Amino acid sequence: MSAGTKTAAARFADIVGDTHSVQDSASLAAYTIDARQPSVAVRPGSSEQVAEIVKRASVERLAIVPVGARTKLAIGLPPRQYDIALDLTRLNRIIAYDPDDLTLSVEAGVTLRELAKVLAEHRQLLPLAVPFFDRATVGGTIASGVDSPLRQYYGTARDYVRGIEFVTGEGTPAKSGGRVVKNVTGYDLHKLMIGALGTLGVITKINFRTFPSPFETRAFVANFDTAERALAMRALVARSPVTPITMEIFSPGTADLLYSAPPAQIERHAIAPGLISNDSWSLTSGVAGTAQTLDRCEAEFRQMASQTGALGTTVLGPDQIPGVFGRKREFIPIALASSSAATILKVSVLPSRMKDALAEIAGAARNNSLRWAAMARGVGIIYAALLPDSLGDDWCARTVRTANQIQVSVARAEGHGTIPWCPSEWKSSLSVWGADPSDLPQMRALKAVFDPHGILSPGRFVGGI
Amino acid sequence: MDSHLLRDLKKLLGQDAVLDKKEDLLLYEYDGSVEVARPNCVVFPRTTAQVLKIVQLANEHNTPVVGRGAGTGLSGGALARHGGILIVFSRMNRILTIDVKNQRAVVQPGVVNSDLSAAVADAGLHFAPDPSSQKACTIGGNVAENSGGPHTLAYGVTTNHILALEVVLPTGELIRIGSQSLDSPGYDLTGLFVGSEGTIGLATEITVKLTRLPESVKTLLAIFDSIDDATETVADITARGITPAACEMLDGWTLRAIEDYVHAGFPLDSGAVLLIDVDGLREAVESQAEGVADVCRVHHAREVRVARDAAERDLLWKGRKNAFGAVGRLSPTYYVQDGVIPRTKLPATLRRINEIGKKYGFDIGNIFHAGDGNLHPIILFDARDEDQFRRAVATSDEIISFCIEMGGSITGEHGVGMEKDRLMPLLFSEADLDLMRRVRDVFNPKGLLNPGKILPSSKSCGEIHVRPLPVAGAPPA
Questions:
Q1: pLDDT at A21 over 70
Q2: Rounded to an integer, what distance in angstroms lies between the CA atom of residue B370 and that of residue B388?
Q3: Would you say residue A323 lies in a domain?
Q4: Are the C-beta atoms of residues B190 and B162 closer than 8 Å to each other?
């Protein structure tokens, strides 16, 4: 950072006040991204202040990374330059919530936990059951594009975010979409913001469509001796009239993780011993509705499980559901806690190709003697956790070989594999975003429109955007 | 039009795929809106390669290009506002692949919406977006306009069902965005493209998600003496945790117009009816139908009818889907608005619409997607009378302004097109619009593709211009 920066940092204090401009190294350590520490962390109290900060940074060509609860900063490549951590946690107001209209408008720093509480008072929900749920902010969740087990039924953020307000890389406040449930007015720029890792704009406000909460839920666990059988059950469910709200398959070996002491931020809901076994594939699925509907679903599930050769089926009652659901939601933090060098691959393939993808993951890990565990969502997303023993060079080489092999094979099957979580030290060896997409030139051109000086999260995104 | 360009187009596509005689072009001046604009020629490509070549020729001749499906649009999106080449996709109407296992299909843009659903019905699937024009409108048009329909409340609009696109850019390049599998890394260009109203590229291949048909469907018709009661019912249904697959409201005036034409069995003396679909598992449908009927009765429904079979259900929906056709019999011209409001503001908005109609001396029928607050007020007028036309536009603008005051939007599913571009500054700041303009220019740098749409051309800040005289409309969504 240049010599003039210190004065710049002081001038950010002019905007947000001394107490909200952090410059001491000890406090800044909390904002570290891939071993890089910013020179200053600023905590604006309004979207106007956000605009002012970005404008000033833009003029001085200082690089900004917007942050919330800092639970997902490991996602992406190391920032090319990192001067300012723009901490949005003070933007924590629920601006409007009209349950009868199914509309919700919130500032970026509101936590998901807080939102869930407010929505629950009106028997509604936002289907963002994402990892690090207890701490995560809504802005970070949207910007990082992480998904939720509830996508099986509700889709992803792009399906229920109705509008976003943001500040461009030049410090200009802008917006797209609106508040109402249905709207086709103008370009959906907000779709670009979802999962863009803060490279196009600093999200200050998000409008959602909310959903009525189901009255009752029930869940099932069916264990199988092969992935093929578990996936056959998935396919049967997909063809059946049952519309589950979640459906995940855990690989053998996952039980070790799920039953181990979960990290502190994870809800402590026990799950019954033996529910998920270390040597079988476990399909877990939740359904919602009235008691009568749930009875019907249960009957259908039992039949489909037996048809596909399940070793056993367990019906989970209300006391067991949070434990299983919480572990599906927190699979990534649980895996990260189990190895200092945990590397998480996100593999996306057509559902019919999940069998091959899982076989590839298992084969590649075995060839390289790596411990692994996987959670496969019914929609065709697999999170494969590679769990090396240490950060040593040999473990790095094995992990890189395994990840590469999986990524290449998945790409050949018209899918894609990215590495949202891995040790910082390994990022230069791994292909964090997979192969460059063919539409990268258009993406770069869009980046230049939103952030002409390249000061927003530079270098962290796909293709080094 | 440049005779060289015309010659080149005919050489490329064949004589039977190019129209340039005035009498042939007349048909392509219109869509389902009240707008009019004539292209210089109309072409009918059969392949992506031909589309690419057409766009390259247009570039060489600096001529505008506009894509068009069936021309059922309601905002002038598929009209050649500044002339040029109109590319009609009706001959690119093949379903390329159907992948039942993965619930995907790849289609050409000219495939008719309901044809795709029909093609996959045997596999228990359908393409969920269902605009009222679904028997005519094309999936390419649905993608351009991000079309909705009565069942979007539960199933979402077009953008929720599109995974990937092959796109011819106005610069004459071919790109692929999105993918068959979910969560493509990088910016969501598919999300940007869907609903861009044909201004950033021409989709030549579309990968869609197919949705499982529900096991059971029940259609209820709830009859109310007052619109307020019907409206309160809608909010209360949600409060009970029920999301109906569709929730449509028709006011008394519209009901009478429809009944006269369709004979769907709508009561002639009521204030409003709600037409509600619940679907899903048999058991769920039973209990939800009971729940909905209860709520209706609590809010003083005079009668709640449940369609006994598919034939009765189809008849009730026929009434709804043919509403605009029915209205078309009453007046030489009608103007359909597409404003959106938070649905709890329905009673106030309907009262206001009524007052506005009285003020300008028009009958206004109201038919709308009550579940999501998407209004379709229908203003009946005679476009041949210039004064009436001016008053109709003024009426419409006043209604839209009121929707915005209520925290709503100017269009829920019909698009901005060339009809509402001048109203955009009422919702968006100059900075918002400038950013949108620059995003468009990334793809459409010379402005050759569908010029004069969505974004206001000048900083007119919503002032009202009188447009050329329109002609009769066609059935909208």
A1: yes
A2: 29
A3: yes
A4: yes
- pLDDT, residue B460, reads 46
Please tell me which of the candidates A175, A214, A462 has its beta carbon nearest to residue B432.
A175
pLDDT for res B326: 86
Q: Name, in order, each residue with C-beta under 8 angstroms of A8's C-beta and a sequence gap of 6 or more.
A: A40, A56, A60, A62
The C-alpha atoms of residue B232 and residue B392 are separated, in whole angstroms, by 30
Beta-carbon separation of A99 and B427 below 8 A = no
Q: Nearest CA to CA, how far is A125 from chain B (Å)?
A: 11
Tokens of A201: 């704009």
Residue A128 shares a structural domain with residue A206: yes
pLDDT tens digits, residue range A386-411? 999 999 999 999 999 999 999 999 99
* B 12-41: CB under 8 A from A: none
What is the CATH classification number for the domain harbouring A182? 3.30.465.10
For B:447-476, CB contacts with A below 8 A are 454-455
Whether A435 maps to a domain, the answer reads no
Residue that is last in its domain, among A275, A296, A331: A331
pLDDT on residue B428: 96
pLDDT on residue B476: 38
The verdict on a CB contact (< 8 Å) between B187 and A350 is no
Residues A198 and A285 in one domain: no
pLDDT 10s digits, A322-346 = 889 999 999 999 999 999 999 999 9
Whether pLDDT at A115 is above 60: yes
Contact A196 B146 (CB under 8 A): no
What ipTM was predicted for this assembly?
A: 0.96
Q: Assess if residue A440 is contained within a domain.
A: no
Q: Give Cβ neighbours of residue B206 (< 8 Å, ≥ 6 apart).
A: B106, B107, B108, B109, B139, B140, B143, B162, B164, B165, B166
A81 and A123 assigned to the same domain: no
pTM of the predicted model, to two decimals? 0.95
Q: B337, B369, B435, B453: best mutation site toward chain A, by most A Cβ within 10 Å?
A: B435
Residue of A77, A121, A185, A290 best to disrupt the B interface, most CBs of B under 10 A: A185
Q: Which residues between 50 and 109 in chain B have a beta carbon less than 8 angstroms from any beta carbon of chain A?
A: 99, 101-104
Contact between residue B93 and residue B108 where contact means Cβ atoms under 8 Å apart:
yes
**A132 and A172 in a common domain:** yes
Contact B75, B57 (CB under 8 A): no
What is the tally of structural domains in chain A?
Answer: 4
Contact B167, B175 (CB under 8 A): yes
Are A414 and B180 within 8 A, CB to CB? Answer: yes
Which of A184, A212, A240 is at the close of a domain? Answer: A212
Sites in chain B below the pLDDT cut of 50: 459-477
Domains and CATH numbers, chain B: 3-90 (3.30.43.10), 93-212 (3.30.465.10), 216-318 (3.30.70.2190), 331-414 (3.30.70.2740)
Q: Do the Cβ atoms of A456 and A200 come closer than 8 Å?
A: yes
Within a 10 A sphere around the Cβ of A55, how many other Cβ atoms? 17
Nearest to A416 among B185, B341, B420 (CB): B185
Tens digit of each residue's pLDDT (9 = 90 or more) over A56-106: 999 999 999 999 999 999 999 999 999 999 999 999 999 999 998 999 999
* Distance between CA atoms of residues B127 and B105, nearest Å: 9
The tokens for B111 are 């495939």
Q: Which of A101, A189, A243 sits opposite B280 (nearest CB)?
A: A243
A237-266 pLDDT, tens digit per residue, is 999 999 999 999 999 989 888 887 665 555
Chain B positions in Cβ-Cβ contact with residue A194 (cut-off 8 Å): 188, 191
pLDDT at residue A7, rounded to an integer: 64
Of A98, A186, A243, the CB nearest to B436: A186
In-domain check, residue A118: yes
**Structural domain that includes position A308:** 216-331
Identify the pLDDT of residue B475. 38
* Amino acid identity for residue A359 in this structure: A
* Banded pLDDT at A267 (limits 50, 70, 90): low
Chain A contact for B415, CB < 8 A?
Answer: yes
**Residues from chain B contacting residue A242 (CB–CB below 8 Å):** 281
pLDDT number for residue A265: 52
Query: A62: which 2 tokens?
Result: 């200082």
